[in-house]
Amino acid sequence: MGALDGLMQGFQIAFSLEGLLFVLIGVVTGTLIGMMPGLGPISAIAIMIPVTYGMNPSTALVMMAGVYYGAVFGGSTSSILLNAPGISGTVATSFDGYPMAQRGEAGKALAIAAISSFTGGTVSVVLLMLFAPALAQVAVSFGPPQYFALMLLGLTAISSLSDGSTIKALISATLGFIVATIGIDGQTGTNRFTFGNPNLMEGIDFLVIALGLFAIAEVCFLVLKRKDQSLSNQANIGNLKISKQDFKEMRGPMTRQSFLGFLLGVLPGAGATIASFIGYITEKRIAKKPEEFGKGSVKGLAAPETANNAATSGAFVPLLSLGIPGSGTTAVMLGAFLVLGIQPGPLLVQDHPDVFWGIIASMYIGNVFLLILNLPLIPYIAKILNISRPLLISLVIVFSLIGVYSISFSTFDLYLLLLFGVVGYLMRLLSFPAAPFILAFILGGMMEQAFRQALTASGGSLMVFINDPISVSLLIVSILSFVVPFIRGRKKTQ
User: Which of 125-129, 226-230, 359-363, 486-490 comes out lowest in average pLDDT?
Assistant: First the structure.
């Protein structure tokens, strides 16, 4: 069966009444769950697995795929409106989405996010259909040295994520690295920065850090600045209309990040988080007015939203073609496949063409559903900001507490949440950027693991990082990305 015949069979499944219904159920459920801080795609898919018992496998997996990209899509809402990113893939969305909401353009920010997500999702589905088998071979060629170099490239974003002092950005990143090392070392079993406290032995969850540094810190700021009249603009939804100039600004980032996000999503372990950060810094570096980033830039919002949704489809390449889950979310998806008696891998197209092509075809329809459903609902979703400030603050605190407690069922994590909230507020007060902290925390653990695996495989030789053309190319780009902005800065001051 050729690709075109397979896709036609997939569309027959996706366009059937049953297929359309379950795609719709999947994207709506995923969007609603994704909007809640603490309940990201992993929780959404895990919650829906019991619902699929007894269902036709192709229909069930079409619905689960809808839940996945619907949850990523919905995650941007809490980042934009409340500065409370529920998943790591939407942290970069808050950098410019929340400032837009603060200046009374929440509706426009949500519309830009919806259109960017649709573009990234649709382009990546086309790429998935055309290049899945070939890209799967590229994905498996990435080993620990290549991943270490890729993570290092992501970390060069630190200098781009600071609008003020680079020294403060580096201090913030160092703190993020330190927090990432807390817990039992997986290789040696050594306790690191646990101070004998058993609650710290498993490390600190991402959600505790993200909600503390962003959501709780914002609550502290709103409480202490409650008499500041300039914050009243935040309650305005603003005009939803996107101007021609806005479209012109979005066009470049959406085009570039659709391809880049998809390619990064193909790599196991990279996923939407790295794609969104690299998408953000790439656009900031090539922008004519980089100083607008972090203050409500249209490009700064369109880039990460396009990249994280493109990466979501890209993550299906290693899952469907090789049976390898590239992230925690696709690992849960793999579980859903196995529960339904489907083994993803090289034989999936041959043994279950209805499932393979049905999922790909459903993504086209799912992305259209997301756009059609969400654009008309934006005025109603954005009305969250019309809630009185005391009630809104209470809701943010309650959802943050519930989100963190539902992950670990640990009251200790709630204390940590409050602690990082105070840390986030102090960082904001002293002009220390929180973004380098969260970026270093996310990449630190993965980077350390890749570094150790590479050294173990090479017998301790650092030459493993420069003997491979992919890793050495990435290392050169990383060094240039870090050094060139400093050189440019010095030339400007001279």
Answer: 226-230
Backbone angles phi, psi at 460, to 5 degrees: 90, 5
The alpha carbon of residue 226 and the mean position of all alpha carbons in its chain are separated, in whole angstroms, by 31
> With 90 as the cut, is the pLDDT of residue 415 above it?
yes
Report whether pLDDT(278) > 60. Answer: yes
249-275 CB burial, b ≥16 within 10 A, e <16? bbeebbebbbbbbbbbbbbbbbbbbbb
Q: Which tokens in the block code for residue 437?
A: 């902290």
Q: Flag whether pLDDT at 363 surpasses 60.
A: yes
Cα atoms found within 13 Å of the Cα of residue 430, Cβ hemisphere only: 13
Structure tokens at 85: 């990113």
| Residue 30 CA: distances (Å) to CA of 43, 126, 138, 279, 295 | 10, 22, 30, 24, 29
Say yes or no to pLDDT of 262 above 70.
yes
Tokens, residue 289: 């007015």
Yes or no: say if 396 and 218 are a contact pair by the CB < 8 Å rule: yes
- On whether the CB atoms of residues 76 and 37 are closer than 8 A, the answer is no
3-state secondary structure of 237: coil
Query: Contact at 8 Å (CB) between 193 and 474?
Result: no
- CA distances (Å), 82 to each of 85, 241, 334, 384, in order? 8, 21, 32, 9
Number of helices (H), then strands (E), belonging to the chain: the values are 21, 2
Q: By the 8 A CB rule, do 244 and 61 touch? A: no
For 367, counting Cβ atoms within 10 Å of its Cβ (0-12 exposed, 13-18 middle, 19+ buried), the class is buried
Give the residue with greater pLDDT, 408 vs 255: 255
Q: Is the full-model pTM beyond 0.70?
A: yes
Beta-bridge mates of residue 183: 192
195: left (phi over 0), alpha (psi -120 to 50) or beta: left
Closest CA relative to residue 192, chosen from 459, 453, 444: 444
Whole-number Å distance between alpha carbons of 282 and 368: 27
Q: Running DSSP on this structure, what letter comes out for residue 33? A: H
* 3-class secondary structure, 191: strand
Q: Alpha-carbon distance 84 to 211, whole Å?
A: 6
Question: 361: closest CA among 47, 15, 61?
Answer: 15
CB 261 within 8 A of CB 302: no
Amino acid at 39: L
Q: Chain centroid to CA 353: how far?
A: 30
**443/116 Cα distance (integer angstroms):** 25
- Whole-angstrom CA distances from 419 to 83, 91, 409, 426, 467 are 18, 19, 18, 11, 44
Alpha carbon distance 128, 124 (integer Å):
6
280 with 300: CB under 8 angstroms?
yes
At residue 416, the pLDDT reads: 92
Per-residue DSSP letter, 325: -
